[in-house]
What does this fold into?
Amino acid sequence: MKGPEDLSQPWRTWFPGETRFRSVVLCGPLIDDVGSLYVTTCDAIYKLTAEGRHLWEFRTNSSLADCPSLMGSRLFGADKAGHVFAVDVETGGLHWIRWYAQGTGDTSYVESHRGVVVYEGNNSQP
It folds into this structure.
């Protein structure tokens, strides 16, 4: 994968339905192999084109814990209520969700690689 050659065309985007304080970005965006961006705020994950066009958003019933992870056609993430989920990267639709921990505290992570998803939760008692 090759990075951009021309950074002279910056763009801005506003996340649909977000207010000033709800659109706090939790981490830097994930970028997939075709240049799409996955931006995680406290309440949603947004997929944007490389030009900044909004493609979809995914929301959970609880605040999101941290940055999601990309593997194949899935985006894996966690919420602060202890749920881990998989989202289809093409549609933004929920593929599965499971409860694994009492919660996450202030920080958590989900990483994925070669078919394995690793999640760090708090007081894990499924």
Remarks:
- The CA atoms of residues 80 and 123 lie 12 Å apart.
- The chain has a mean pLDDT of 80.
